[in-house]
C-alpha cells in the first residue's frame, strides 16, 4: 500500500491543476475559499507536486456525478490538455464514482484533499506505529470507495480454483483489504498495549505532562527544541512532525515536567486519520496542561484556532487547562499584535527570542502551581479525605469537633478534576 501512494512524488513528477468548489453551505459556514485554496497549494507542494493552475467554482451544491459542473469539467479538460497536466487535485472530498467519472473524462489522475494529506503522512511516517496508522487510514479511505462501478474493479473473475465461481475482482480486493485491516489493527493494538503500560508507569512517577498542540506549522517543534534542546525536525512546511516526541523540562522553581510535541492539526483533517492517530494523540488526552501554539502572524489565525479547538473537543480534551501561546510575533503587523490578549492564560512570544522562553516556563509553572486551601471535612466523608491524600500535598491536618481540618496545596489541574467535589467544605 505504501509504495502505491508515492506516485505523487516518485515515478513521474506530478503536474497538477488544483480545483476548489465553493458552495452555498460553505458561504453560510463562513468558509474562507481563498485561504483554503492557499493551504491546498502548500499541501500539494509539501507532497512534491508541481502546481500549474488553480481553479475555483461557485456553485449552489456539488454535482452528484462530476462534483463540479459539467461545463467546468470541459473547461478543466482543455486546461489539462494545454498545460500537459497529469493530475487534478480537489480541495474537497470526492466519492468513488466522482473520481472515476472525472478520471475518464479528463484522462488525468484525480486526487482529493483527504488523499493528498494521507499521501503526505505516508511519505513522512517513520516509526512503526506511524506507518501502520497511516496504512490503516488509507485502507479505511479506500474501502467505501470500491463501489461496484469501476471498470477495473468489478470485472468478473474467471480464474479456476483460486476464486469462487462468479466471484468478482472487487470482492477479492475487498477481502484482501479487510484481511490486511484486521492485521493492521491487531499490530496497532499490541503497540498500544505497550504504550499504555509505559504511560501508566510514567503516571505513577507523578511527573506532570504538558502537551504542545496546534495548527500545522505554528512552531510547536521549534518551541520544544528551544526549550529542551531536543533534536527534532523543524521545517517551514505542513506536517513536519508526525510522531510525538517527549522531553524533560525543568521549570524555574526546579520542578521537572515532561513536554510533548504532537502532530499538527489542519482544517478538514481526514476523519480516518484522526481515528488512526488516536493512539498517538492519546498523549494529548493524558496531558495535565495543553500549550496551544498559534501562528499569530497567519491571516487565518482565528480560523486555525477554531479548528484546533474543534479537534481537541473531538479527542475529548476540550476542557483541559489550556495556555494559548501566540507565536511568531516577530512576523506580526502592529494591527495583528493589537488584537492579541495577554493575561494569565495568553502569552505573546517568538520561539527564537530567549526571554520569551523564560516567560513560557513561568506561565507553565503558574498554571501548574498549587493554590493553598483549607477544608473542613466531616469524619464520615472518608472518601473525600482519601482523595485529598491522592491529589494534593497536605500541609497540615487538625481536628475540630468531629470534623477534620485539612490545609493542602492542590494544583489547578487536579482542582479542576477533583477539587470541585470539596468546594462546599472549603473554609475561605
Ligand atoms: N519568524 C518566526 N518563525 C518561526 C517561529 N517559530 C517557528 N518558526 C518557523 O515556523 C516554521 C514551522 O515551525 P515548526 O516548529 O516545524 O512548526 P510545527 O508547529 O512543529 O509544524 P508541524 O510539525 O508541521 O505541525 C519553521 O520554519 C520555523 O523556523 C517564530 O517565533 N518566528
Ligand atoms: Mg512539528
Describe this structure in words.
Belongs to the TRAFAC class OBG-HflX-like GTPase superfamily. HflX GTPase family. GTP binds at residues 214-221, 239-243, 261-264, 327-330, 350-352. Helix 12 links the parallel strand 8 (289-295) and strand 9 (322-327). The chain is 43% helix and 21% strand. It has a six-stranded mixed β-sheet, with helices on both faces. A four-stranded parallel β-sheet has the order 2-1-3-4, sandwiched between helices. The chain has a four-stranded antiparallel β-sheet with strand order 12-13-11-14. The protein contains 16 helices and 14 strands. Helix 2 runs parallel beside helix 5 and helix 6 (128-142) packs antiparallel against helix 8. The chain has 428 residues and is an alpha/beta fold. The chain has helices spanning 24-28, 33-46, 70-83, 96-106, 113-124, 128-142, 151-154, 169-204, 220-228, 271-276, 278-286, 301-315, 334-338, 354-368, 382-391, 412-417, and strands at 15-22, 50-58, 87-90, 109-112, 208-214, 245-250, 256-261, 289-295, 322-327, 346-348, 370-378, 393-400, 403-411, 426-427. The protein folds into four domains: 3-122, Rossmann fold (3-Layer(aba) Sandwich), CATH 3.40.50.11060; 125-191; 207-367, Rossmann fold, CATH 3.40.50; 370-427, Alpha-Beta Plaits (2-Layer Sandwich). Guanosine-5'-triphosphate binds next to helix 9.
